[in-house]
Automatic annotation (TrEMBL):
InterPro entries to which the protein is assigned, alphabetical: Aminotrans_V_dom, Aminotrans_V_PyrdxlP_BS, Cysteine_dSase, PyrdxlP-dep_Trfase, PyrdxlP-dep_Trfase_major, PyrdxlP-dep_Trfase_small
Cofactor: pyridoxal 5'-phosphate
Taxonomic source organism: Labrys wisconsinensis
Function: Catalyzes the removal of elemental sulfur atoms from cysteine to produce alanine. Seems to participate in the biosynthesis of the nitrogenase metalloclusters by providing the inorganic sulfur required for the Fe-S core formation.
Organism domain of life: Bacteria
Protein name in UniProt: Cysteine desulfurase
GO molecular function: cysteine desulfurase activity
Length: 372
């Protein structure tokens, strides 16, 4: 059987149209976008066009977009960039237990620098309760950071509701939209967020580029100091090559109409697995408030990594990690209160533009064979 890729939440292939807009910056155009002569004009134009394309997808102004090296940097810039301006004031951050390490680890770092952090719990489907967020707020809170959609189980958080709570308390709301952008609507006005992170390689753009939306009027301390690139928010000569790729990818995502078909394939996948495995499998994540491409399934009594090792031509992910021979349950599934014998058997299948019905049928057959 030909290799099947069902790990689009981990990364996506570069769309050919994205590669095409990048090619001139590999082969011909080399000027510095900040220079003022003929050699820089195509880079400068590409950079600003890309900024507008990203802004269009997020429904914001182009000058509210800062290019970064990816989702991790965008998250770090949001959290640390706001914290560093706090000076000596007590600083408290509210986040959730199911965030990506690109939020959790910066939070731990800020904790070492004197911030306090509250990690609000989630329910069994991975949902954050807006009331729990409200209760976590203290007089020292300056920031709430809750992810838009979870990378492992796909659960979509009630961001608009949390935004109302944040703003009623005079707080800023950041959301990590690395997984949601291009899959579900991510207009910043509708979400009501003040800062939002995206990662290029999750939307058919290359790795090494992402962006942070920073609402006009919000000041952050740069993480990288130097010249005044990106409106003084991130120093370093911008890559027109990577930005052009991200911009085109955002334009394509904006026009993409294939997501309902992806969702139907995802649901067919689940139906087929249910028909074959019955109650020996369990769905992890919210039944409907979930990314349309994501299917996290527990094969009860099995170990996810071992299942994947037995279907080596299927690329998918497992949240459980193996440390010195010991298998540990993914922190996300732990936070959801999933029992260890269920959670250990979790496999995340994430579908994308290239996924076909034949592939799904074939993967179901293979899983039946190895788990018979
Ligand atoms: C929810 C979430 N946030 C952040 C990141 C990190 O993005 P990047 O790999 O672009 O740094 C990822 C990538 O897996 C993610 O899924």
């Amino acid at each position: 059987m030909a290799p099947v890729y069902l790990d689009y939440n981990a990364s996506t292939p570069i769309d050919p149209a994205v590669a095409a807009v990048m090619r001139p910056f590999l082969e011909e155009s080399y000027g510095n976008p900040s220079s003022g002569h003929w050699a820089s004009s195509s880079a400068k134009a590409a950079l600003e066009r890309a900024r507008s394309q990203v802004a269009e997808l997020l429904g914001c102004a182009a000058d509210e977009i800062v290019f970064t090296s990816g989702g991790s940097e965008a998250n770090n810039l949001a959290l640390k960039g706001l914290f560093f301006l706090r000076g000596n004031r007590p600083s408290h951050i509210v986040t959730s237990q199911v965030e990506h390490p690109a939020i959790l680890v910066p939070c731990r770092f800020l904790d070492r620098l004197g911030a306090t952090v509250t990690y609000v719990p989630v329910d069994g489907s991975g949902l954050v309760g807006p009331d729990d967020v409200r209760k976590a707020i203290t007089t020292d809170t300056f920031l709430i950071s809750i992810m838009h959609a979870n990378n492992e189980v796909g659960t979509i958080q009630p961001i608009a509701e949390i935004a109302k709570i944040a703003h009623a308390n005079g707080l800023l709301l950041h959301t990590d939209a690395a997984q949601s952008v291009g899959k579900i609507p991510t207009k910043v006005q509708e979400l009501g967020v003040d800062l939002l992170s995206i990662a290029g390689h999750k939307v058919y753009a290359p790795k090494g580029i992402g962006a942070l939306y920073i609402r006009r009027g919000i000041t952050i301390e740069p993480l990288i100091h130097g010249a005044g690139h990106e409106g003084g928010r991130r120093a370093g000569t911008e890559s027109a090559l990577l930005a052009a790729g991200l911009g085109k990818a955002c334009e394509i995502a904006q026009e993409w109409t294939g997501m309902p078909a992806t969702q139907r394939l995802r649901d067919l996948f689940w139906d087929r697995l249910r028909a074959r495995f019955g109650n020996r499998i369990a769905l992890n994540g919210h039944p409907d408030q979930r990314l349309p491409n994501t299917l996290n399934v527990s094969f009860i009594g099995h170990v996810g990594a071992e299942i994947l090792a037995r279907v080596p031509n299927v690329a998918a992910s497992t949240g459980s990690a193996c440390h010195s021979g010991q298998i540990t349950l993914s922190p996300v599934l732990q936070a959801m209160g999933i029992a260890p014998d269920v959670g250990m058997g979790a496999v995340r299948f994430s579908l994308g533009r290239g996924t076909t019905r034949d592939e799904i049928e074939e993967v179901v057959d293979q899983l039946c064979r190895v788990l018979a």
